[in-house]
Amino acid sequence: MSEQRLQRKLIAWWALVGALAVLGFAAQAGDEEPARDVLYRYETAVFGSLFYLVVLGIILAIASGLDPREVFALRRPSSWGVAAGLAVGLLISLLIVTALLEPVLGAGEEQGLDPTGWEPDRAPAFVLNAIVTAGLGPLVEELLFRGVGFYLLAQFGHTAAIAVTGIAFALVHGIAVGLPIFFIIGVGLGFIRSRTKSLYPALLLHTGFNSIALAAGVLN
Fold first, then answer.
1. Is the dihedral of CA 133, 137, 141, 143 positive or negative?
2. Residue-wise pLDDT tens digits, 7-17
3. Which own/partner pairs from 83-88 qualify as long-range (CB within 8 Å, at least 24 positions apart)?
4. FRET partner for 156 with CA separation of 20 to 30 A, picked from 14, 58, 127, 190?
5. Range 67-72 contact pairs with CB under 8 angstroms and sequence separation of 24 or more
6. Running DSSP on this structure, what letter comes out for residue 199?
7. How far apart are the C-alpha atoms of 21 and 211, rounded to whole Å?
8. At 9, which helix (H) or strand (E)?
9. Burial of 219 (0-12, 13-18, 19+ CB in 10 A)
10. Cα–Cα–Cα angle for 140, 145, 150, nearest 5°?
11. C-alpha to C-alpha distance for 206 and 142, rounded to whole angstroms
């Protein structure tokens, strides 16, 4: 594929990231006080699923004409042992960092996705939202950032790809006070993508992190 076509794809990727960032910040600006039970509502799961499926369609359109295994790093890591060690180490580091910064920044509260306890009578809706939050969401975000984004930015070096996708990951979440936390998470995921040459460890790490955050909110 010509360099000019790759540059057009990179521009399209930036356009998608920019649009998602604008939507994210606009959504946060429009909510004076986020509802604390959004993960117990069926409509949250429905709208979340539709949103991610639309974004997934755009990602696949941007990646059209490229080898999916290469652009999305859909290959086994060179060593699952090394990948597991990196993932566990980064997961623990990210949990410590977010635990230290969250009381100061309040990103989780601002986002409004932290459940305020367990409500067994609304469990089915919560399970559906958990699948979206800890399953579909991380999958689409990893394909966007550590997949096609990393691939298109790697021409400038892996360090640049890690940093830029980390910045983009933070901006897309649309939470000003949470930018440092999301940037650190994004850089961590980009680092493991770079070291393992595979999307799978970063995806598992992302899924695990979101799952722990959900469990912590329920047990709070």
1. positive
2. 999 999 999 99
3. 83/192, 83/196, 83/198, 83/200, 83/201, 84/201, 86/191, 86/192, 86/195, 86/196, 86/201, 87/192, 87/201, 87/204, 87/205, 87/208
4. 58
5. 70/151, 71/147, 71/148, 71/151, 72/143, 72/147, 72/148, 72/151, 72/199
6. S
7. 23
8. helix 3-30
9. exposed
10. 135
11. 8
Which amino acid, 23?
L
Q: Which two tokens stand for residue 63?
A: 């990646």
Domains held by the chain: number: 1
pLDDT single digits (tens) 13-72: 999 999 999 999 988 776 556 567 888 999 999 999 999 999 999 999 999 999 999 999
Amino acid at 13: W
Residue range 178-212, pLDDT digits in tens = 898 899 999 999 999 999 999 999 999 999 989 98
Provide the domain limits for residue 49.
3-219
Report if pTM > 0.85: yes
Token pair 């060690």 in the structure block, residue: 85
Percentage above 90 pLDDT, the chain: 63
Cα–Cα distance for residue pair 132/44, rounded to 1 Å: 9
Query: Which residue shows structure tokens 């980009």?
Result: 190
DSSP state of 149: I
pLDDT at residue 134 greater than cutoff 90:
yes
